[in-house]
Automatic annotation (TrEMBL), chains A, B:
Sorted UniProt keywords: DNA-binding, Transcription, Transcription regulation
InterPro entries, alphabetized: HTH_LacI, LacI/GalR-like_sensor, Lambda_DNA-bd_dom_sf, Peripla_BP_I
Protein name: Transcriptional regulator, LacI family
CDD domains xrefs: HTH_LacI (cd01392), PBP1_LacI_sugar_binding-like (cd06267)
Coiled-coil blocks: none
Origin species: Pseudovibrio ascidiaceicola
Stretches assigned to the HTH lacI-type domain: 9-63
SMART domains: HTH_LACI
Length: 355, 355
DNA sequence: CTGAAAGCGCTTACAG
DNA sequence: CTGAAAGCGCTTACAG
């Protein structure tokens, strides 16, 4: 190895960029001497921006987690519109593992459900330090995970028995955020388009209702419309039927849809029936899937930080491995969702009366 | 400095203890060479047990967080039965800061509420890297925190707008755990003793109701008794009145109390009225405060991991400082609660009929 | 409060 | 798969 100019972010480089000595950088990073506050801020700023701090932190825990068993069902793996959300999460998780030098052992079930026995077997075989389970939080699975020696975490799930770590977006608060926004715009009658009985859908429904409860309004349980599925074309067909039967969207001036796919299907149905979005009716989605940006009009939605779920999941596994077993409670982490305002929402058209 | 025998946990010491070379330890810790799995496990085990891994991790982030502003109201600071829970949390947080070498700047409000303006002032003056707020999650405060340059976290609170990090025990799931246990014991009529309108109390009430909902039973909204306060003596007086008026605890065979203080007051009132706990009625608390262990009978309760809240809060602050601002969603962390079974609960006495 | 220099801790290229 | 040895990165005792 020659003394070439390989650019490894280190204390040396930071010293150069901050125009101080190496010692000073070290002192700042370790609070080992009383350094002036301007210098301190400059050095820390550069250390953060160059990614040195993040690298240092990552390195500190890398050893603990060399092998992780990735558990999921087949349907989340190929990329498609249908499973866009699951795929995004999974892919971000894989990337994160790669950047931390963690070996992933996939344990993909052919069936629609994860079989706990298969996990036990895979753990015995590969002896991973950690287990990451995708979108399955049934109690039989949780019981099994809890009794395993490895640390484990469920991505996009929750454990009511509070024994296993979980990370998920804040579906309920996110839905409240969306509904609050529609209420703030002045909409009085808002319908929720949702589908089925999955936990995620239920949580979003609760958030929708929360917004009305907290505003002191009547809780609109009768304004919840189940469109039967979350595939765009199916939603379009079903919601078209609903529109025909109800003679247009009236009395609703806004539709909050508990997934972007649902929103896009609904928007098409509305447009086919001659309604202009957002002039006649507002439509709001949930997920911030890529294709929502490209629709016409572009879809207002709730951003779900799918990329961060993997990051947090790995942090939880690492923390579980650092701390002695008896001294750590299970953690349930919810990640904040953000309102993304595009062109499918607006104030209600007060002269609205179409039929 | 002489070459004396100072015992600094390091890679050298681990090598000695594990009977391998320094290089090998390094390889294991960095996965930089394919090391045999027995050796690997031995080295990692020793590295964890000696606290080397934890130290390494702590060191990696120590630089970020040298000064933290601790914000709270006066009432949580002196130690007493009344504020046992708040005091425990606060104290654990202080200890954690100390062990990580973080300087705490207390900003204690004389009033019963935190004044956002005072925080802004204190931040301008002391320029802390992080802000830790105790038990206050009003939106005006959150708005202020969100607009501040420092990272911030609320201990024992939650942010519905999902912009500021929070850590809290899982009150709702914890209450469900307690209620599930009473149901499992065979109790059919269970009353909830609670007080006031604070968020914590409300969350525990929801958990109580959840247990019935999920079991497919009637939701016992009419079995919620507000005892007006959480001080033991007040509860005792108020609940005694209730017992006199209702001619004993019938038809309830169990009382779930949303705080240990409430449970102890209720237990005394029951005993004064001639009821034996748990033979005639079961009583369950929530908090796992010290004095519950010493009561007679000792109190079954829900353990709340107050000591861990501080640990998690600091981890959140550190993480916020490591990651670039735009790339991180706010996090809401809930810590798992555990059932603590002592002597105040049992199966319902089927021949129970006292008056 | 900041830096030059000594030196410790850890990593790494290479040998076996 | 493991270790001896060279050497880099970071810390620290000390000077100013």
């Amino acid at each position: 190895m020659n003394g070439g100019s390989r650019v490894t972010t280190g204390i040396k480089q930071i010293a150069k960029l901050a125009n101080v000595s190496i010692s000073t950088v070290s002192h700042v990073l370790n609070a080992s001497a009383p350094i002036g506050s301007e210098v301190q801020e400059r050095v820390l700023g550069i250390a953060r921006e160059t990614g040195y701090l993040a690298k240092r932190r990552r390195k500190a825990s890398i050893s603990l987690l060399s092998t992780v068993l990735l558990v999921g069902t087949k349907k989340a793996f190929p990329k498609s519109d249908r499973n866009f959300v699951a795929w995004t999460m999974l892919n971000a998780f894989r990337k994160e593992c790669q950047s931390r030098g963690i070996r992933l052992i996939p344990q993909i079930e052919e069936e629609n459900e994860i079989n706990p026995d298969n996990i036990v077997e895979a753990v015995a075989k590969h002896r991973p330090q950690g287990i990451a389970v995708m979108q399955d939080d049934r109690q039989c699975l949780i019981d099994m995970l809890y009794n395993l020696p490895s640390a484990s975490v469920i991505l996009s799930g929750q454990d009511q028995s509070m024994r296993v770590d979980t990370v998920a977006p804040s579906n309920r608060f996110g839905a409240k955020l969306a509904t609050d926004h529609l209420l703030d715009l002045g909409h009085k009658k808002i319908a929720l388009l949702t589908w089925g009985n999955r936990r995620v859908a239920k949580q979003r429904t609760e958030g929708f209702l929360d917004a009305f409860r907290q505003a002191g309004l009547d809780v609109p349980v009768s304004d919840i419309i189940d469109v039967g599925d979350y595939q765009q074309d199916v939603v379009e067909t079903n919601f078209s039927k609903w529109l025909s039967k109800h003679n247009g969207p009236s009395p609703y001036s806004a539709f909050f849809c508990s997934a972007d796919n649902v929103a896009l299907g609904a928007m098409k149905a509305l447009q086919n029936h001659g309604y202009s979005v957002p002039n006649d009716v507002s439509v709001m989605g949930f997920d911030n899937a890529l294709f929502g940006e490209l629709s016409s009009p572009s879809l207002s939605t709730i951003h779900v930080p799918m990329e961060e779920i993997g990051h947090v999941a790995l942090n939880l596994l690492e923390e579980a491995l650092t701390l002695p077993d008896g001294e750590r409670s299970a953690r349930r982490v919810e990640l904040g969702c953000r309102l993304i305002l595009r062109n499918s929402t607006g104030s209600p058209n007060t002269s609205f009366s179409k039929s």
